[in-house]
Write a structure and sequence with these properties.
The protein has 217 residues and is of the alpha/beta class. The chain contains seven helices and ten strands. Helix 5 links the parallel strand 9 and strand 10. It catalyses: orotidine 5'-phosphate + diphosphate = orotate + 5-phospho-alpha-D-ribose 1-diphosphate.
């Protein structure tokens, strides 16, 4: 669910302007999962553009407090959301922790890095939601450390049904600055893509795990 429509449209336009989101229906990308995709999203680029990262920071800070109340701690999911998560925590005057994909293999073997007390209210900041699996593993680690997770806030989501199901199972509310639907609407309105390309992009979102695969007999 998006925080609000105006923010969703503005965020989508900014991400397109800096090529944090690339739309290429003719020559698909291959994700780490092996999925073929006409879209690639790299929100780490936001950190290189001061005015845009400040906009994302301020929208997160304002809407997190409005939607979840002011938490005790902001947590970022490594590695993509460490930078923006820390900026949000700084803006809100809150402590910050981040969550590794898995515990370190040496030292204290931490998965949650930073000072976190049991029972503290935490909002998790993420950069991108696809299936939601990696994001929810971070939530599990925080819950195992005793945190009370108020919700998750992400920059962008593809809006896959599987992600919605995963968050429902985890009993966790997800809000985003923008999403795939608003991105496509904006891309058409601003002539970033043609009607034919829009059709391809919408078809992909229905069956993303099998889109673009060559059938073999």
């Amino acid at each position: 669910m998006i925080f609000n429509k105006d923010t969703a449209e503005k965020t989508a336009e900014l991400l397109l302007q800096i090529n944090a989101i690339k739309l290429n229906p003719e020559n698909s990308f291959t994700w780490a999962s092996g999925w073929k995709s006409p879209i690639y999203c790299d929100n780490r680029l936001i950190l290189s553009f001061p005015s845009i990262r400040n906009y994302v920071r301020d929208e997160f800070a304002k809407n997190i407090e409005k939607q979840f109340g002011k938490p005790d701690v902001i947590a970022g999911v490594a590695t993509g959301a460490i930078g923006i998560g820390m900026l949000v925590a700084e803006s809100m005057g809150l402590p910050f922790v981040y969550v590794r994909p898995e515990p370190k293999k040496h030292g204290r073997q931490n998965q949650v890095e930073g000072f976190l007390q049991k029972g503290q209210n935490v909002v998790v900041v993420e950069d991108l939601i696809s299936t939601g699996n990696s994001s929810l593993l971070a939530v599990e680690a925080l819950r195992a450390a005793g945190a009370n997770i108020k919700g998750m806030a992400a920059i962008f989501t593809y809006g896959f049904d599987v992600a919605e199901e995963n968050f429902k199972k985890a009993k966790l509310d997800l809000y985003t600055l923008s999403n795939y639907q608003n991105l496509l609407n904006l891309a058409v309105a601003k002539s970033y893509i043609t009607e034919k390309e829009e059709k391809t992009l919408r078809e992909w979102s229905v069956t993303p795990s099998t889109w673009g695969q060559v059938e073999t007999k």
